[in-house]
Design goal:
single chain; 2 helices; alpha+beta; about 90 residues; 2 domains; four-stranded antiparallel beta sheet
Length: about 90
């Protein structure tokens, strides 16, 4: 293969790779945006205990859990939402 043909070949391969990468990225973005439930943040408290901020649509919730139970501690956003620090204190953390 001569030099010009080699450059043309790699140019086509590069364009195909770029197009494929763009398609894959868009597909992943669609999958991510379709999810309504997200785990925003977690904090391990040791001994199988944790706090987590869970987002469902546009709402956030503070959730606490142990090895065999889980509980809603507070709704975090909205006009009546407590500060997350206050919610953790109420939970005895």
């Amino acid at each position: 293969m001569n030099e010009a043909a080699g450059e043309s070949f790699w140019s086509v391969v590069g364009s195909m790779f770029t197009a494929l990468a763009t398609r894959v990225r868009k597909s992943l973005d669609r999958r991510r945006s379709a999810r309504r439930l997200r785990l925003s943040e977690t904090l391990s408290l040791g001994e199988k205990r944790f706090l987590a901020v869970v987002q469902f649509r546009q709402q956030e919730f503070l959730v606490g859990g142990t090895g065999n139970s889980i509980a809603l501690l507070a709704k975090l956003n909205g006009p009546e939402a407590p500060d997350s620090h206050d919610a953790a204190e109420q939970a005895g953390v």
